[in-house]
Amino acid sequence: MSRRYVNQLSHGDSVDEAFLVADKQLRANRQGNLYLQLELRDKTGSVGARLWNATEELARTFEPGDYLLVRGKTQIFQGSLQIILTHLDVLDPTRVEPEDFLPQSSQNVAKLFNRLRELLLAMHEPHLRALVECFLIDEEFVAKFTAAPAGIKNHHAYQGGLLEHVVNILNVADRILEFYPEVDRDLLLTGVFLHDIGKIEELSYERSFAYTDEGQLVGHLVMGVEMLRDKVERTADLTGEPFPPELLLRLKHMIVSHHGALEYGSPKLPMTLEAVALHYLDNLDAKIHTFGREIRDDPVRESTWTPFQQSLGRRLFKGTTARDTPEGTDEA
Amino acid sequence: MSRRYVNQLSHGDSVDEAFLVADKQLRANRQGNLYLQLELRDKTGSVGARLWNATEELARTFEPGDYLLVRGKTQIFQGSLQIILTHLDVLDPTRVEPEDFLPQSSQNVAKLFNRLRELLLAMHEPHLRALVECFLIDEEFVAKFTAAPAGIKNHHAYQGGLLEHVVNILNVADRILEFYPEVDRDLLLTGVFLHDIGKIEELSYERSFAYTDEGQLVGHLVMGVEMLRDKVERTADLTGEPFPPELLLRLKHMIVSHHGALEYGSPKLPMTLEAVALHYLDNLDAKIHTFGREIRDDPVRESTWTPFQQSLGRRLFKGTTARDTPEGTDEA
Amino acid sequence: MSRRYVNQLSHGDSVDEAFLVADKQLRANRQGNLYLQLELRDKTGSVGARLWNATEELARTFEPGDYLLVRGKTQIFQGSLQIILTHLDVLDPTRVEPEDFLPQSSQNVAKLFNRLRELLLAMHEPHLRALVECFLIDEEFVAKFTAAPAGIKNHHAYQGGLLEHVVNILNVADRILEFYPEVDRDLLLTGVFLHDIGKIEELSYERSFAYTDEGQLVGHLVMGVEMLRDKVERTADLTGEPFPPELLLRLKHMIVSHHGALEYGSPKLPMTLEAVALHYLDNLDAKIHTFGREIRDDPVRESTWTPFQQSLGRRLFKGTTARDTPEGTDEA
Amino acid sequence: MSRRYVNQLSHGDSVDEAFLVADKQLRANRQGNLYLQLELRDKTGSVGARLWNATEELARTFEPGDYLLVRGKTQIFQGSLQIILTHLDVLDPTRVEPEDFLPQSSQNVAKLFNRLRELLLAMHEPHLRALVECFLIDEEFVAKFTAAPAGIKNHHAYQGGLLEHVVNILNVADRILEFYPEVDRDLLLTGVFLHDIGKIEELSYERSFAYTDEGQLVGHLVMGVEMLRDKVERTADLTGEPFPPELLLRLKHMIVSHHGALEYGSPKLPMTLEAVALHYLDNLDAKIHTFGREIRDDPVRESTWTPFQQSLGRRLFKGTTARDTPEGTDEA
Amino acid sequence: MSRRYVNQLSHGDSVDEAFLVADKQLRANRQGNLYLQLELRDKTGSVGARLWNATEELARTFEPGDYLLVRGKTQIFQGSLQIILTHLDVLDPTRVEPEDFLPQSSQNVAKLFNRLRELLLAMHEPHLRALVECFLIDEEFVAKFTAAPAGIKNHHAYQGGLLEHVVNILNVADRILEFYPEVDRDLLLTGVFLHDIGKIEELSYERSFAYTDEGQLVGHLVMGVEMLRDKVERTADLTGEPFPPELLLRLKHMIVSHHGALEYGSPKLPMTLEAVALHYLDNLDAKIHTFGREIRDDPVRESTWTPFQQSLGRRLFKGTTARDTPEGTDEA
Amino acid sequence: MSRRYVNQLSHGDSVDEAFLVADKQLRANRQGNLYLQLELRDKTGSVGARLWNATEELARTFEPGDYLLVRGKTQIFQGSLQIILTHLDVLDPTRVEPEDFLPQSSQNVAKLFNRLRELLLAMHEPHLRALVECFLIDEEFVAKFTAAPAGIKNHHAYQGGLLEHVVNILNVADRILEFYPEVDRDLLLTGVFLHDIGKIEELSYERSFAYTDEGQLVGHLVMGVEMLRDKVERTADLTGEPFPPELLLRLKHMIVSHHGALEYGSPKLPMTLEAVALHYLDNLDAKIHTFGREIRDDPVRESTWTPFQQSLGRRLFKGTTARDTPEGTDEA
User: Fold this and answer.
1) Whether the Cβ atoms of residue A261 and residue A285 lie closer than 8 Å to each other
2) Helix axes B185-194, B273-297, angle to 10 degrees
3) E217 touching C (Cβ < 8 Å)
4) Chains touching chain E at 3 or more Cβ pairs under 8 angstroms?
5) F28 → closest Cβ in B76, B304, B319
6) pLDDT at residue D1 above 80?
C-alpha cells in the first residue's frame, strides 16, 4: 500500500508513517520539561513535529539524515501544519526507498539523460564529442550528475534538478543557434553541459541538501575546471591527438565566467560569444524556473502577489486566475 | 555607375564622390591659417577629411546632415585613412539616395516585417492581437519602426536595426516557449514587440543618429508606455470590449522593467514570468550582436583580442583563425 | 459621546468601542485550540487584540478593512498594549465615520487646498496655469489628491499627507525663489504640484494603506506622466493654443527625475534647474518630516536616541529635554 | 585707463596687458626648438599663450603665481583663443591690483558680510551667538572667510564664493524655518555658518586656487571641527559660563555629517533634524549654482544641451531661448 | 571563597551569586502576569534570568549597570542556559570588585603597558617621543587607555582590549619594519599608538559597553584628531621648539585615514606610506583576532563551520579537531 | 665597454646603442610622409624614438620583442626625452644579454631563492614540506617562478618581482606568527608560497610583460589551483601516504580567496585564519611596494605630491625632503 505524503496531510489526521529527519532539536519549555522539535520530510515537502516529554537518551538515538517511523496526530499551529507525536521508532535505512524521501525532478530522469546524450553526441567537433563521451562513460560521474540538485534552495532544488536544468538549456540552445550563426554550436552545447558540473561535488544530496566543505571553500566554478582538466587528459586516448589548447581555454573560460559578474562569484567576465550566450541562457532558465515555482507554490490563493522573496529582492505578481489559464476562456 | 563606398577606399586613391557630412569643424593651424576638418560618411562607414586654407564663408555654406560632392586624394594619417580635399560642392539632397548614406540592416526589411506580422497576428488572445493590429495599421508608426536603429552606438546601430532586433527576439521566443509552458506565449510576444517602441521617438535617425530632447529627458521606457496607452484606447473599437486592465498592466510592466535593474534605468524590477523572460531574451540578443560585431569588425587581424571596449568593460577574445572557421564547413 | 481613541488606552482599561480591522490571523496555541490575533486601528494608531477560543466560522465573518465593535480589557504584553477580547460584532460600515479610523493630517485639509490654489493660480505662464486648472476642476482628482497619503509607512503616511507634503514644498519654494532668480518660478511650482500625483493611484487608502497592483508594477513616476498627458490634451481647450512641447517635456522630466538617482527608481537624472531644485526640496521636506516624527513619537522617553530605523539606516539623536524646548530656558 | 579683460579678447587682437601666470611649461617642438606654453589669467577667465623660440633662462625668471606684462597677438587655435607672444616682462606684484586677477563674486562682499552678521547676531541662544561673535571679531578669520572660494572648480569657485554660498543658505533657511517648526532656528543658522569654515584652510586662494597639503590629507570637515573647538574655548569668556556640551556636540555633528553619506566623505550620517536640513540646503544651493553656471556659460549657443559634465555625470538641458526668457514677464 | 562564574554554570545548578545587570525588561505573559527578563553578566560571559510574578515596584529598584545578588536554579531553555530566580537583592556597588563583572583582557595589563612604553620611548624622533610622553604622563588618559575595549561587540571587546590591540600591532610593526626600509619607523609606531585613541571617549565601558553620544555623533576618528591637537600644544614645552607642522599633518592623516575607505568612515584615503601600512596592520590584527575568537568560542563542537557571522558576511571554517591541534599529532 | 642605459640619457646626447623594441607604429605626418614611432627599452626604463621618412619595407623587418642597434640624437619633446633616429639595424638576439633589457629585481635572485628554501624546508608538517619540495625540484617551475614579475604595471613589475614579493611576505609572516599563536605557521607559509604561482603562466615575461590568453580568460587564481593539484598528486610518492584532503582544501581556499573580496576577483571570501592573514599580508606588501615606488620615482622633484594614480584612485603625499631622510637631520 502506498504511503501518505506530506502534501496530503491536513488538520486532524492520524499519522503512522516513515519520514526522513531533516532537523532535530531538544528543547525545554518554561517549566524546564524537555521536548523534541523535529522537521520531518518526504519527497513532497516537510512538516514540523513535536514530541512532548522527551528525554536526552531518546534524542541521542537518531540524527538528521536518519529515518523514523512515527505515530501522532496533525494540527495547525500558527498557520502551519505540525504533527504532535505519540511514538517514534528509528528505522533501518535499508527498509525504506530513499527516493521517497527527497524531492525529485517531476520529469523522467532516464528520458532527460537520453536527450542529453542525443544532443551532445551529435556534435561534429571531434575533441568536444570525445570529451563529452569521457564524461558519459564515467559511471560514478553519471550517477552523481543525474542525482544532484541544481541548488540547495533556489532553482531546481531537487534530485535530478541539475540534469533537468542542463537539458532544458541544451534544448533552448539547440533551437536558437539558427538565429545566432556566429555562435559556435558545439562549443556552446559543451559549455552548457559543463558549466555546473562542479555542483555534483559542491553539494551533498544523499539524504538532505547541503554544501560540502569543498563547496563552501572552493566553489563549483573552480571545482568544475578541475573536473574538466581530469577528463581532458583522457580525451586524447579516444581521439589519438592532444586536446586543442585554445578549445580547452574556451571551455574553462565558459565555466569560470558563467555567473557573468565578479560580484556574483565569477573571477572573469564573459569574453567570448559562447560564454556570454551561456550566461544569459543559464539565467533565463534559472529565473523562469524560480519565478514559476514561487508563483505556483504560493499557498495564499486569494492574494495577487507572492510574499517578498529575499533572494530575488522582490515580490512576484500572480494576478487573477483568469490570467493564469487563458486557454480555459478560449475553450469555453 | 555605382559609387565607391568608404569601405572600398585605400591609401592614395583619387576621390570624386558624394558623402553625408557627419561632423564639421573649422580650425586654425599654428600659423593661424584656417582649415576644415570634416567627418564624411556613407552607409558603409565614415572617413576623416581636411580642406586646407578654408574660409569662414565656405564653412557657413553647409552643416552636418548635408551632402557634399568632394574631390581629393586619400592618405593614411596616424593609422587612419583621411581624404585631403581639393574641392567641395554642396549637393541638393533630392539628388542623392538617402539610403546610400546611413548604415542599413544587412537583412531585408520587408522580409523582417512580414515575419513580424506573421508571428504576431497568429496570436490567440483577442485583445493583444487587436492591439498589435492597431500598431501595424498605423503607417507612420510602421515607417518609423522599420527605419529606426536600436541604438546610437551599441547593438543594432543602423537603419532597420530595431526591427531586426525585435524580430530576432520574436523568433527565439517562438522556438523556446515550448520549454517554458508557464510563460504566456501571446503576452511574451506582445511584450517583445512593444519593449523598445519608445526608441522610434527617443532617437532621431534621418540623416544621422542622435537622441532627441525627449529621448534624453524622458527616455524610451516611459515614452513606450505613453505610446501603448494611446493605442490601447483604440483597440476597443476593434474588439468591441474594453482592453482588460490586468493585461494592460502586465504590458506596461514589461516595458518599464525590461532593463532588469534600477541602475540600468528600469524604475521597477521584473515581477512577472513574461517580464523576466523578456529581460533575458533582450539582453541575450543585444549582447550576442555586440560581441559578434566587435570580434568581426576589429581591424587588427593579427591580434587574438579586440581592444578594450569601454561600454562592455572588457576586451573580447577573438582567438586564432582556425577557431573562427570550424572545420565542419571546410570539409563540406 | 465621543469615542476613546487608541492613543488614550492604558493598562487595565475596559474597552467597548468600534475599530477598523487592519490585520486578522487565525492561529492555534500549543494545545491546538484556535484563537484570533487581530490588529485594530483608529485614526490615532493601532493596537493588538486576541480572542481566545475562536472558531473558523467566526473568523470568516469579517476581513481586514471591516469594522468591529469589540468588548474586552487591555493589558501590557511584551512591552506593548493589547486587548483581550471577550466579544466582537461586525459593524455595518455606514454606521461609522470613516475619518475616525484612518490617520489624518493634523492640518486642515480645506485650508491646505486653498493655499494650493492660491499659489498655483497666481502663476503667470498661461499654459501652466491652464494645466493646473484642468486638474483642479476635476472633482475626482481633487477628492483623491486631498485624501491620499504620501506613503504607506514613511513620511506623511496619513490621509491628506500628500496634500500637506505638496503644499509645504510649495510654501518653501515660494519663499526661496527670490534667491535663485535663474529658476523658473512657474515651472518649479507646477513641477512640485505634479511630482507625486501618480501616488493617488499608486496607493489605496480608503480603509487601509497599501500599494495597488499598478503601483507595484508601474510606479507613480510613470503613472504621473500618464496623468499629466491626459490633462495636457484638455488644456488646449482653455488656452486656445496647443501646449508648448518643450514645456511639456520639462514637466515630464521633473516627474520622472525627481527621485534624483537611478538606484532610487528615477529612470533619468535631473537635467534642468527646476528638476534639480524639485529633487532637493522634495527630499528636504520628506526627511525633516520623517526625522521629526521619529524623534517626537519615540515612546522611550528616557533614551537620548531613537531605535535604529531600518529605512533611514541610522538611529536619530533626541538629546536631552532642555534641547528640545530651547525657548523654555530663555523665558525662565 | 582700464584693462582689457580676457573675456573681451577676440581673434586677431593686439595685446599689451598684465596677466597672472596660472601655468607654465617649457616644451620643444619637433625640430627640438624650445617654446613656452603658458596659461594666463585675470578675474574674467584664462587664455593660453605661446612664446616661440624661448630659452631655459627666460623660463626660470618666473613661476605660476607671478604677474607678467605681455605683448602679442590673439588667434583661434583648435577652437580656442590663444595669444602668440612677442615679448614678456616679469611684473613687480606691488604694481598690480590682485583683485583684477582672480575671479570674484559678482555680489558685493561687504553687503554679503553685513547680511551674515545681521542674521547671525539676531540669534537668541546666548552661547551660539557668543560663539559666532568670537569668529566675527577674529580679523584674520574674517579676512579669509570673505576671500575664500567654496571650491576649486565646482560651485562658487571664485573669491568670495564661500561667503556668497553661506549667506545664500542663511537667507533660504531664514525664510523656510517657519514651515519646519521642529527645526531649531539658531542651531541651524550656526551650522550653516560653520559647515564649510574648514575650507578657509583646506584651500589656497591668494593667486590661484588649489588644495593645501592639510586640505588633502585631513579635509575641511575635520579641520572645521578643530576650528570650532578653538573658538568654543574662548566663548566662555563672553558668556561667563561653559559652552553646553550637547550644543557643541550638535554643532560638531553638523560639520562632520553635512556631506550626507560616507561615500561623499562624511564619517557620520546626519542624525539630527538640523544636520539633515543643513545637508539638503547645502546641496540645493550648490547644485542650483552649478547647474545655472553650466547652462549660462556654455559657449555653444545653438545647442540645446551643455556638453557632458564629468563631475555631474550628465549633460544639462538648456532648451530654446524662448524658454530662458518667458514671454509673459517681458511683455508685462 | 571565590565566586562561581557564568562559564562554570551548567543545567540544574543552584545559584547564589552576585551579577551585573546588563539588560532588564518587565514583561507580561499571556495571562497578563508580569515577569522580569534579565541579562546577568560577569567577566566570563552573560546568562539570561527570569523572575516569575514580578511587580513594577520591584522592577524600578534597579537598572542596567547595577549589581544584584540573586538566588535561583539554572535550566536549559531553547538551547541556552537560564536562571529561574527565586530571590533578588540590589547590591551596594562598593561591595563588589568591578573587575569581576566585565570581560577583561586575558593578558596582563601592566605588562602590556610596559611594552607600549618600552617601544614608544625608544623612538629617536624627538617631537614624536615628546608627544608620546605627553600622553603617557597624563594619568587620566592612561587610566582610560588601559581600561577601554577596542569595540562593543567585535574584536577585542573587553576591558584592556584597546591596549592589547595597540601593543600587538606595535609588536608586529617593530618586527617587520626591517623589510620595509622606506617606512618611517617612528612615524608608524606613533600612528599605531594614536590611531584609536578617540575610542577612549567614543565608548563607555565602566559597567557595560556602549557608544557615548559623542561617539555616535562625531566618531573616534575626529575625536582622536582633537585629542592629538590638545597634546601637541603641550609638546613644545618639552622640546623647546614647535611641533613640526608636516609631522602633525602626517599624524592627523594616519588617524583619519586608517579605516582605509570612505565607505568605512574614513573621510580620506591613506596617502602616505605609513598611513597605508597602519591600515593593513590594523585590519590584520583585528581580523585575526575576530576569526580566532569566533572559531574558538563556537559552542557547537561537532560542526566544522561557525554559524553565519553578520558582521563578517560569512561563516568560518573550523575544520576537524586534528587540524586545530597539529602539535598533538607531532608529539604522539 | 658598458652600455649607456636609458636612465642615463639626457637632452642633446648622441646615441649608438642596442635596445629592445617595446612598441612599433608606422605613421604618416600631415604631408602623408611615413615615419616610425618606436618605444625602446632596456632594464632601466623606456624612451620614445622617431625615424622620419621611414618605409613600409623597413617597418616590416622587425617587431616588438626584437632588438635594434640604433643611432641618433636625444631631445626633449613635450616634457619627455625622445631619440631622433638617423639609422637602425636589426640585431641578432644571440648577440645581446637579455637581462640588460628587462627590468630586474634589485635584489639578488639566488639569495632570495635560498631564503625561500630555508624558510619553507624548515616546516614541520610533513605533507606541506613534501608538497613544497615537489615544486622546488621542478626545474621548469623554479626557472619561471624566479623569473616572473608579480604584475604587468603595478607592484613588483620586473623580472624576479614575484619571488621578491613572496619572500618578503614569508619574512614578514615568519616574524609575526609569534604574536598570532592561533595561526598555523606551516599552513600560512605554504599559502604565501602558493598564492600567486598561477602568475607564472598568467603572464608572459620573456621579452616584454603581458597577459597570456589563459591569464586573461581563466586567471591566476584558478590556474594556481590547477598547478597545486598537479603537484599534490606527486606528493604522495615522497611521503608514502595520501595528501590529507582537508589540508588540500585549506590550501586551495587560500589561493582562491586571497584577493579578499568578490569584486576583486576572488570567488570566495577568506574563511580561515590563514586565508585572512594571507590576504592582509599580501596587500600590505603590495601596497607598501607600490606607494614606495610611486613616491621614489616621481620625476617632479619640487612637488610635494605625486600625480593622480588611476590604479590607486588617489595622489600620494611625498612631503618635503627633510621628512624623507629624518636620520640625516639627527646625525647632523
Assistant:
1) no
2) 50
3) yes
4) A, C, D, F
5) B76
6) no
| Cα–Cα distance, E303 to D309 (Å, whole number) | 55
User: Could you read off the pLDDT of D78-113 as tens digits, one per residue?
Assistant: 556 789 999 999 999 888 888 788 887 778 999 999
Determine contact: A110 vs chain E, CB below 8 A: no
H or E element that contains B117: helix B109-121
The reported pTM is: 0.88
Sign of CA dihedral E284, E287, E289, E291: negative
Displacement of CA C332 from its chain's centroid (Å): 38
Long-range contacts of F290-298 (CB under 8 A, 24+ apart): F290/F154, F290/F155, F291/E272, F291/E273, F291/E276, F291/F316, F292/E180, F292/E182, F292/E273, F293/F155, F295/E182, F295/E273, F296/E182
For range C66-91, the mean pLDDT: 85
SS3 state at B154: coil
Q: State the pLDDT confidence band at E325, using cuts at 50, 70 and 90.
A: very low
Phi, psi at residue F128, to the nearest 5°? -65, -40
Q: ipTM greater than 0.95, yes or no?
A: no
**What structural domains and CATH numbers belong to chain A?**
6-100 (2.40.50.140), 109-291 (1.10.3210)
Q: Is the dihedral of CA C173, C175, C176, C179 positive or negative?
A: positive
Q: Does C314 touch chain D (CB under 8 A)?
A: yes
Buried b or exposed e, range B136-152, using 16+ CB within 10 angstroms: bebeebbebbbbbbbbe
Tally the residues of chain C: 332
Which of E155, E156, E176 has the highest number of chain F CBs within 10 A, making it the mutation to test binding with F?
A: E176
CB contact under 8 A, C25 and A79: yes
Q: Are residues E192 and E169 in contact, defined by beta-carbon separation less than 8 angstroms? A: yes
| Beta pairing, strands B80-91 & B45-52 | parallel
Which of F108, F124, F126, F104 has its CA nearest to residue F240? F126
Chains that touch D (3 or more CB pairs under 8 A): B, C, E, F
- CA F227 – CA F237 distance, rounded (Å): 17
Which stretch of DSSP H or E encloses residue E37?
strand E34-42
Helix D161-176 vs helix D185-194: angle between axes, to the nearest 10 degrees? 170
Q: For residue range A43-58, what is the model confidence (pLDDT) as tens digits?
A: 887 888 999 888 888 8
In the predicted structure, residue A107 carries a pLDDT above the cut 70: yes
Rg of chain D's alpha carbons, rounded to an integer?
23
Please check whether residue E332 touches F, CB under 8 A.
no
Strands F80-91 vs C67-77: parallel, antiparallel or unpaired: unpaired
**Per this entry, what is the length of chain B?**
332
Q: Are C42 and C35 a contacting pair, CB within 8 Å?
A: no
Question: Could you tell me if F300 lies within 8 Å of chain D, comparing CB atoms?
Answer: no
CA C72 to chain centroid, in Å, comes to: 31
E292·F182 Cβ contact <8 A: yes
Which residues fall within 8 angstroms of residue F94, CB to CB, at 6 or more apart?
none
Give the separation between CA B273 and CA A291, rounded to whole angstroms.
6
Q: What is the pLDDT of residue F77?
A: 65
Is E19 in contact with E41 (CB distance < 8 Å)? yes
pLDDT at res. A181: 95
Which has more pLDDT, D171 or B298?
Answer: D171
Q: Which letter, b or e, does each residue of D114-142 get, where b requires 16 or more Cβ atoms within 10 Å of its Cβ?
A: ebbeebbeebebbbbbbbbbbbbebeebb
Report the alpha-carbon distance of residue B203 to residue D200 in Å, rounded. 47
Specify the higher pLDDT residue, F47 or E121: E121
* Better pLDDT: C104 or B33: C104
Compare A41 and F286 and report the one with higher pLDDT. Answer: F286
- Contacting subunits of F (3+ beta carbon pairs below 8 A): A, B, D, E
